[in-house]
Amino acid sequence: MIRILSSRPPFVRFCLIWLIFPAGGLFTLFLVFNAVFPLPPLSPYSPVVIDRTGAIQHVALSADEKWRIRTDWSKTNPDLIRTIIDKEDRWFWIHPGINPFSIIRALAGNLRDGYVSSGASTITMQLARLTEPRSRTLSSKLIECFRALQLEWTYSKTGILHAYLDRLPYGGNIEGAGTASWYYFQKPVETLSPAQFITLTIIPNRPRLYRPHESNKVLLARRNEWLQKLTENGNWGELSTDDASAEPLTFTPKSFPRGIPHLSRFLVAKASGNANIQSTIDPSVQQKTEQLIYSHASRNRFTGINSMAAIVIDNQRSEVLAWVGSPDFSEEQFSGQVDGILAIRSPGSSLKPFVYARAIDAGLVTPLMMINDLPANFNGYQPVNYSGEFAGRITVTEALTRSLNIPAVSLASQLTVRQCIEWLTSMDMGSLQNQQDGLGLSFVLGGCGVTLFELTQAYTVFANRGLFRKVRMEQGQSDTSSVRVMSESAAWMISSILSSHTDESVRAAGSDPSKRLTFSWKTGTSYGRRDGWAIGYNDSYTIGVWAGNFDGTGVYHLSGTDICVPVLADLMAAIQPEPGLWPPARPSETGIRMVCQVTGKPAGPECKDQVMDVYIPGMTLTGPCDHQKKVMINPSGTTSYCPNCQPEAGYRIDWYDNVSADLAAFYRSVHHPFRESPPHNPSCTRWISDEPLTILSPLHQFTYYVDRDDPISLELSANVPVDSDYLIWVINQSETIRVRRGESAWFKPTDTYYSVTATDSKGRTGSVRFEVRYP
After folding, report:
1. Annotated catalytic residue within 43, 46, 88, 559
2. Domains and CATH numbers, the chain
3. Is 349 tagged catalytic?
4. Which of 279, 349, 410, 640 is catalytic?
5. Which of 41, 162, 460, 506 has the fewest CB atoms within 10 Å of its CB?
6. pLDDT per residue as tens digits for the range 399-448
7. pTM here?
8. Cβ proximity of 534 and 559 under 8 Å
9. What is the pLDDT of residue 1?
10. Is 88 in the active site?
């Protein structure tokens, strides 16, 4: 009978029970009351964060400020469950929540004794009382009976029993036998000895009297009494009562684990009532990360850098292995409870590899292609390098490894800000998406905000050959799909570039020089030295490190290279002492070609120095190298000719460097030698250079702010073709200034709206309009 009833669904079992116990006439009345007075929810559990090995890492208070851990009672010894039932409610599997026979027996005994000598509470009624504590009155007892019936109507017998075991009171704010097992014995309930388990079943009856401590003789006597009784009833099989009774009362109360506090707080907040949260944290990697962050942060405190954070991601499984949001969660002085992994901060130069990868996929550049690092103006935005100097013409590889600003901004300008940001947000950079409308070209230099989690997750794309997968923090999350966001070739090229400086720079940063650290990495330092970043990755792991102050205070000594790279190198060595081959072999889709060493373009017949470069066939621009041009000159090499003034005899052809006007101007300014073609024949009246006249300053459609009491002078400058002798500036069709080619002019503004025109000696013109305001 018990087996038949217990195997039925709650509704069917409930109806069968009412047919057996003659009270079915009250069924309709129960349904009415059940609708009018619905069952309140059971008291909530304490959120528990578990690591990938199954060990408890963090326990948080429940919503009602209790330590109440949800226990998997299916793993517990069935003898222990039978003990609870025999001790508290031996008819539990049969009755409908209340036991009429127990009520009659208790009532008769209480009348005989003249006082309340025994109760009739079933396990279900006790659960109802634990859910809604009330004073011990007749009306409370009636409500308790009604709630018990509702519990039986709503939950299965097994569910009721487990809920009851999880809510037994143990004094203070500790509830549940499983919770008490962790608190008093530091082990799961299924590993308790019979004596320990019986002890936990006794304490809830009178928590004050049976207060758990070694010298509580009342508790010891009561435990041994129940051990003897249950053994006699055959509950424990071959258990020796003498051995169990001889076991001393041993309690070692210990606070619940509060590990991985930052991630646990985040997971608990998004858990939506899920009591046990299975995280992806690897306890070994987490411990090493915590130790290294604390160690490095302590060493850097004297410089004014008070906080650090780090995250470790398993690239193969796209799972978080370690999450350290600050050196010490308990440090109020340095805002230790702030999570540096989720804080939105300026990324400095750490977004540059993504711009280069996008440019490679767009066919704009290859690793050995030359790119200009020259003073430039992008519609009013004039970035400069960290050093304040310019490299002139430089390979893409060197521009990225040296983290030069102008080349990265130039590529972002060609790609457009909108396309770059939309592409980055496809890698789950939600912070950028929220700022999208207000971002300009400066985003590539850190003029935006991202989190360490977003940035590190995005870098896994390079490790995963151009595929993006959302990084998981919890086990069992279903979304493991991959999306290709860049070609395998682009990912490989960037990884190769970012690994080319690993040995020298990382060893110089302080890692063990006896170990070869094989990974790609990039740093970033935000404006004002408020943030330092280092992101490193290889086939196995992607690691992100941030350093700074949570209040935004800048520190002179803070840089990604000096502060964060040593942490990155030590952490990579600690979790992967024997790294594999990195970077991986060249993808089959990536082609090889010979290029001119001067330009990085496909070598032509006049290219004497050639090197091997990689590219994407069918995508990379394949225009021939044009670093030299043929020029007709006089025998002395002092004058050049065009077809219009070419003499019939007395000339020769020579080769000269074919550089742009801005690069030529830069070479002249820094006295860098290059073969510049001689001036054109002054007698020629028909030749005009195909180079344009470009006004550099003032900026077109720009607004300048000038102090009327102390006005500044605005510069008039332009790139003028080499065949021009002079330049005439006309300001608002009234003021005229004449200068020689290569010279600048200056004027003090007095009006609000300006139109400026420049005309060179060959008649080429350019014009700009701008506004001047006087606040």
Report:
1. 88
2. 308-575 (3.40.710.10), 590-619 (no CATH), 627-687 (no CATH), 694-773 (2.60.40.10)
3. yes
4. 349
5. 41
6. 999 999 999 999 999 999 999 999 999 999 999 998 988 899 999 999 99
7. 0.83
8. no
9. 47
10. yes
